[in-house]
């Protein structure tokens, strides 16, 4: 009985397998083929693209490294340059402090000195120096930075102006903390505008008196 | 992706000696595709599921080929992948049966078989299938690997990570249980 069942089992499984295999062989498995020839064609292209991408990336990084700081450099004025310009100008300045207009030779001296900078910010610096000079001509301590001078202008204006006219403290004290730092042109411009406003008020008050 | 259709000649080709001698490729493993298919058939009891699982087994083998350290154990390695896939498939089917009769209805083996298959499926075959399906998982996998995959005891032990003695005892118990089941249904 057991042998008979064994036979039944084996024969049934054998038949089932034979039948399944018959169908399976009609639809065998499909597998991805490794096309070495295609791979050999693809690799140089990939390598070339990779190299080109690398070069492009390197150029981009180099551009960022070189160009962005250069632009930053243009936008910033070295305090030492301003200081040098002021020293040059001061050396020839003999005009009485009470004279309001800035002497022309002082202009020229400064202009010459500022040529050293050679950047498009020269004019801003020049204006800064001129305005500083015009506003702060009674101060002889110009051997400091423009910012220090502007700060003094502000302080002078604060001291001399009536209360309520010298509210601007836009020139931050922190900018006056050293000679070796870089200051943005916009900071100087802001300080100048503030000083201009205060100077104008002060001048009007003086005239009224 | 370009596909390589494997013909009957390639399918019946056996290359264990060559495989042992060099690094193995999926093309080499195709020598065992019928074994893989039959193991899947034994587990799933369904031709189309078996074919899909066999395809999946080869896909996994292709992806994991770098993990194969011993080329001479390639067949056991492939059969282990197949067995794991089948066990996962059975587990998923159990969950499907648990969660919905509709799913089960569409995944039943007879409904997805061709008319030819249905005609050829005798009452005896149905009873044997039922008896195999009723086997406990551990006995069933040994029986399927032996009866359908035609793997020797040593390879079954290698695939399942058990001792040969265990394989033999489980196989004996499996056959006994199947025969008892067949006797009961007669």
Explain what this protein looks like in three dimensions.
The complex is a heterodimer of chains A (209) and B (186). Chain A has 209 residues and is mostly helical. The model of chain A is unreliable at 73-78, 92-124, 132-145 and 150-184 (pLDDT under 50). The radius of gyration of chain A is 41 Å and the shape is elongated. Chain A is 68% helix and 4% strand. Chain B has 186 residues and is an all-alpha fold. In chain B, 73% of the residues lie in helices and 2% in strands. Chain B contains twelve helices and one strand. In chain B, helix 4 (33-44) packs across helix 5 (47-63) and helix 10 (137-147) crosses helix 12. The relative contact order of chain B is 0.11. The model of chain B is unreliable at 1-21 and 102-111 (pLDDT under 50). The chains are: A mainly alpha (209), B mainly alpha (186). Chain A binds chain B through residues 1-2, 5-6, 8-10, 12-13, 15-17, 19-21, 23-25, 27-35, and chain B through 1-8, 11, 25-27, 30, 33-34, 37-38, 41, 47, 50-51, 54-55, 58-59, 62, 114, 117, 120, 124-125, 128-129, 147-148, 175, 178-179, 182-183.
